[in-house]
Specification:
The protein is an alpha+beta fold. It is built from 9 helices and 6 strands.
């Protein structure tokens, strides 16, 4: 009698998925969603599943004035929430962000403001021409500037500082902002995603055909991406 042959190893789903992360930098659920997505991708590495993530623009408030709007007033006007409801919602999202993205400090008080983000998206588009890592680093720097530091995202100096914090050329960032570079490209991308039915963010579009909506926890992303990698 010979020893039984060892079982064949389970097949892997080795694959690199293309992911478009459609989002806005003043969207707290986008912080939650990015944290969950990246945690899921970290877990999936052992299974040979990777991803190329590109950040795509979406403006929650394209008509917002340069001076912005108080968050409590904004949420009340837009959704009919009372100040108490707004505070409870901010506390809940802050808790979710801490779970999804350990170490990220989200500070949304009653004095926080919402900003127009078109220039931030122009800067993100430029960062994408530098490389995926540069764009990811700038995305985080902008999240930090808004949610942690409470800085004014319509201020070119604040945006240039975020670019420098992300390791990008601050002088080039100033040039991009001053010369209105990439405005047409951002407008075209925003129109494209709207035409594809994206009306809320975060919207995680995988391989151009699957959609994962909202600030989902890592487990939801992990299960969904594993299934998508298996379908091919």
């Amino acid at each position: 009698m010979t020893d039984a042959a060892p079982p064949a190893p389970a097949p892997t789903l080795a694959r690199t998925l293309h992911i478009d992360f459609v989002s806005d930098v003043v969207c707290p659920w986008c912080v939650v969603g990015l944290g969950g997505l990246e945690a899921a991708l970290s877990r999936l590495k052992a299974e040979g599943i990777g991803a190329e993530v590109t950040f795509r623009p979406f403006e929650l408030n394209p008509q917002m004035a340069p001076e912005g709007e108080n968050i409590v007033e904004h949420i009340g006007r837009k959704y009919g929430s009372t100040p108490q409801q707004s505070a409870a919602n901010r506390a809940m999202i802050t808790e979710r962000a801490a779970e999804a993205w350990p170490g990220f400090q989200m500070r949304m008080g009653e004095d926080s403001r919402i900003w127009n983000t078109f220039d931030a998206h122009r800067l993100l588009h430029w960062a994408g021409t530098v490389g995926a890592e540069a764009q990811r680093a700038l995305k985080e720097a902008l999240f930090l500037a808004h949610f942690t530091e409470g800085r004014r995202l319509t201020d070119p100096g604040v945006l240039a500082d975020a670019a420098a914090a992300a390791g990008l050329d601050r002088g080039k960032a100033v040039e991009v902002l001053a010369d209105d570079l990439y405005a047409a490209e951002v407008r075209a991308e925003e129109a494209l995603w709207l035409s594809r039915g994206i009306t809320g963010v975060p919207a995680v579009v995988v391989e151009g055909k699957w959609l994962i909506s909202g600030g989902q926890p890592a487990g939801v992303f992990e299960e969904a991406l594993r299934g998508m990698a298996g379908e091919g």
